[in-house]
Specification:
Elements lengths: L1 E6 L5 E2 L2 E2 L1 E8 L8 E5 L6 H8 L11 E2 L2 E2 L5 H7 L3 E4 L13 H11 L5 H14 L16 H12 L6 E5 L7 H18 L2 E6 L2 H7 L2 E6 L2 E7 H6 L4 H8 L48 E5 L2 E4 L5 H4 L7
Parallel strand pairs: 5-10, 5-11, 8-9, 9-10
Antiparallel strand pairs: 1-4, 2-3, 6-7, 11-12, 12-14, 13-14
Helix pairs in contact: 3-4, 3-5, 5-6
Bound molecules: iron/sulfur cluster.
């Protein structure tokens, strides 16, 4: 039931009233220990806000976030600080978050510093282990961020995120800014570290080709809501929601001569005052009257596979025209 709305400032007043961005609206999902849940959707769908809400980098307006039995919204500042040792984030472009005046070694060890963890000798040993884990030479500890490539900086971001006893890693478009060949290296690195360290990933991405490599399960978001959730195989082989089908149709194929279908029809509407009923109705080729007024409830399709669409609900499907 996670919800977060943002009021725009004075520039966002409409008729004297503040405008509200419904960034995340009644979103529910679970992640099992050791799995990768990918949250996918177009830019502006609210997936990054979901990642930050889970970390409590921003506070939810409503809803509950339970991690390993702990209700993290109920934690006070001191308890949250302790809990943060276990949840970390890797962001798209770590350059902005790497202090240009600090060496790579100091950056990676900063979380240990902040949490007053270990002594000088144990920190040196931890630094060596982390650099090796992410495939960077030991001598990189003395370098500065500007001396590294984008892929190397992302390795530093991952090492820093794993410096403490991390078990849940939020990867927010963690490979999106990298060249394709470097993307593959970082994806492989994330997969290997997950296996070796027994990590759990909340993997936020707009790139279905990367999600195909990374995910165990997928949650598809559209305009602040989850429209379909299921195991990766079900989402890729039998996508049920018209939005998921359109997203997948626009993924480039590797076969020569095949071209991706055009991306989803039209622009994504503004999350300010989103369309009523099914939020996808302004772009959906199957939309009928009921879609414009009634929000579709999740329909269970198969084991752990649900989608929210009136077409999939026998009680409402008859009211819609046949799918083309
Ligand atoms: Fe399309 Fe209606 Fe289904 Fe929404 S509920 S995806 S508008 S058919």
């Amino acid at each position: 039931g996670l919800t977060r709305h943002f009021a725009l400032g004075a520039g966002g007043l409409l008729g004297g009233r503040p405008q509200i961005v419904r960034a995340v609206d009644d979103v529910s999902f679970s992640i099992r220990r050791g799995e990768t849940l990918a949250v996918v959707g177009e830019s502006g769908c609210g997936k990054t806000t979901v990642g930050r809400l889970v970390l409590r980098l921003i506070e939810a307006d409503a809803g509950r976030i339970e991690i390993g039995g702990t209700d993290i919204r109920a934690l006070d500042d001191a308890a949250l600080r302790r809990f943060r040792r276990r949840i970390q984030i890797v962001i798209q472009d770590p350059f902005g978050s790497l202090n240009p005046r600090m060496t790579i070694g100091a950056i990676i060890l900063e979380p240990l510093e902040v949490h007053r963890e270990g002594n000088a000798a144990s920190r040196r040993a931890r630094l060596a282990a982390l650099l090796e884990m992410v495939g960077l030479p030991a001598e990189f500890a003395a370098r500065f961020p500007h001396e590294l490539s984008g892929g190397q900086r992302q390795r530093v971001g991952i090492a820093r995120a794993l410096a403490l006893e991390t078990d849940l890693l939020v990867c927010d478009e963690a490979v999106s800014a990298l060249d394709v060949s470097v993307q593959a290296q970082i994806v492989n690195l994330l997969q290997r570290i997950k296996r070796e360290q027994g990590l759990t990933y909340l993997f936020i991405s707009h790139d279905m080709a990367i999600v195909r490599h990374m995910a165990d399960r997928i949650a598809v978001m559209y305009l602040g809501q989850i429209v379909e959730t299921g195991p990766k195989r079900a989402i890729f082989d039998a996508p049920a929601h018209p939005y998921t089908r359109a997203l997948l149709a626009s993924v480039p194929r590797s076969e020569p001569g095949t071209r991706p279908a055009p991306a989803v029809l039209g622009d994504i509407p503004s999350p300010i005052d989103p369309p009523p009923g099914c939020r996808f109705h302004t772009r959906c080729p199957h939309a009928g009257d009921i879609c414009r007024t009634v929000r579709p409830a999740p329909v269970a399709l198969a084991a752990a596979h649900t989608a929210s669409c009136h077409l999939l609900d026998p009680a409402t499907a008859a009211q819609l025209r046949s799918p083309s």
